[in-house]
Amino acid sequence: MLKLIAIVGTNAEFSFNRFLCQYIAKRYGDKFNIEVCEINDLPLFSKDDYPNEAVQNFRKKLRLADGVIIATPEYDHAIPAALKSAMEWTGKHSLGSGNDVMRLKPTMVVGTSYGVQGASRAQEDMREILLSSDEGALVLPANEILIGYAATNFDKQSHDLINKTIIKQLDVAMDNFYQFINQWNK
């Protein structure tokens, strides 16, 4: 079974993107072993600091995963600062050349937000970072999951995604991600 890490792209206590990661882990648990990974304990990136234990564990999880899903909210038309800092710990600049953990790692970007655009600009920002020479990830193309109006698309008690149209889009994207990972691993 493929091992995935689903990164909650915020350090906020309440997050629809956390609910999205948890829903993905539950719904696709028959196809993937998905660990939801928080970034709350990661320190702010500094090139002068050696990664602490939380950073080392984060990097190890990503390195050992067959693929990564990043669920990002949108803050001021971009990814949150906490997510940017977390990703800076994964690039080749963090520990020098050869220590990058996202290089050629199959990665999928998803997101939800309160507004109509479903974190579209943050997702584009995240893809640009992932495709940079510092990260070099393999980003799943042509499978955007843009969940707008988050408060109406998740159940208030279970926090499960309830919009059937979006669930169908997510089903297709996850099937495509499965094939994408398997193609790369051949």
Could you describe the 3D structure shown?
- The structure is a single chain.
- The chain is α/β, with parallel strands linked by helices and 186 residues long.
- The chain has one domain (2-185): Rossmann fold, CATH 3.40.50.360.
- The chain is built from seven helices and six strands; from the N terminus they run E-H-E-H-E-H-H-E-H-E-E-H-H.
- It has helices at residues 16-27, 53-64, 81-88, 92-95, 120-131, 150-153, 164-185, and strands at 2-8, 32-37, 67-71, 106-112, 138-139, 145-147.
- Strands 1, 2, 3, 4, 5 and 6 form a six-stranded parallel sheet that branches.
- Strand 1, helix 1 (16-27) and strand 2 (32-37) form a beta-alpha-beta unit.
- It is globular.
- The two termini are 15 Å apart.
- The model has no long low-confidence stretch (mean pLDDT 93).
- GO terms for molecular function: FMN binding; oxidoreductase activity.
- It comes from Lactobacillus iners DSM 13335.
